[in-house]
Amino acid sequence: MALINCPECKREISDMARSCPHCGYSFEKMKFCKFCGTKIPEDSIICTKCGRQVEYTNQNRGIVINNVANSSAGQPYMPVIRQPKQVDKVVALILCILFGYLGAHKFYEGSAGMGLLYLFTFGLFGIGWFVDIIVIATRPNPYYV
């Protein structure tokens, strides 16, 4: 066992170490988890932070770690991940201030049911309209619905 210098912090460490104990620099090839974005070792199948399966095992037989396989197609089961709609805060706030009593901001966010409710009740009799102005103003930009 020999000592080497860490390329990041320049301190001496063992040549058997997988990462530097001082600065955390990893000597392994890394990749990013496609679900949470954490750096994980390149040969990982499961993310060490979020615990989700990032790679499939044995592509030929369709075997996956969570024991779910699509036997009819012979390919591993691939879950469908729905991305939430990204909404611009400034646009939603302007729509809410100008046309909130008609539910314009609710239609913009993709809530057609609430938009119709606001349309027929004039912004829930003005109370919902006023509350929505405050709620939208305090949200981060952009926000997800």
Description:
- The N and C termini lie far apart (54 Å).
- Helix 3 packs across helix 4 (127-138).
- This protein has helices at 89-99, 104-109, 112-125, 127-138, and strands at residues 3-5, 12-14, 30-32, 39-41, 69-70, 75-76, 86-87, 143-144.
- It is an alpha+beta fold and 145 residues long.
- Strands 1-2 form a two-stranded antiparallel ribbon.
- 30% of the residues lie in helices and 14% in strands.
Count of DSSP-assigned helices: 4
- Average the pLDDT over all residues and give the rounded result: 80
Strand content: 5-15%
**Share of residues in helices:** 25-40%
* Biggest sheet character: 2 strands, antiparallel
- Give the overall shape: elongated
Could you spell the SSE succession in H and E letters? EEEEEEEHHHHE
What order do the helices and strands come in, and which of them pair?
Elements: E1 3-5, E2 12-14, E3 30-32, E4 39-41, E5 69-70, E6 75-76, E7 86-87, H1 89-99, H2 104-109, H3 112-125, H4 127-138, E8 143-144
Antiparallel strand pairs: 1-2, 3-4, 5-6, 7-8
Helix pairs in contact: 1-4, 3-4
Summarize the entry for a quick read.
This protein is 30% helix and 14% strand. It has 4 helices and 8 strands; from the N terminus they run βββββββααααβ.
